[in-house]
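Page 47, continued from p. 46.
Same chain as before, 90 aa.
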Amino acid sequence: MRNSLLATFAVVLAGAASSAVADNGLEPPMDLLASQIRDQGFKCDKPQNAKFDASQSKPNEKVWVLQCENDTFRMTVIPNMAAKIEKIGQ
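Result:
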């Protein structure tokens, strides 16, 4: 009984920790960002990298720099709204 409680607690704790990492922008959701770019009419072939830009981000406005094979984009992601997308670089 004690082992099953410990195992359940460990699973719950691991889930909460991974959710907190994603919510804080520490785990780049590269494929999700690339999908959002494409949904909004931009071309993003083979996403290469996604970096969280803490200096440009605000509460409820996360800024990411997404590098695709063909272009690089700065995305401002706001919950329940379309992302603000800027082509940068190339």
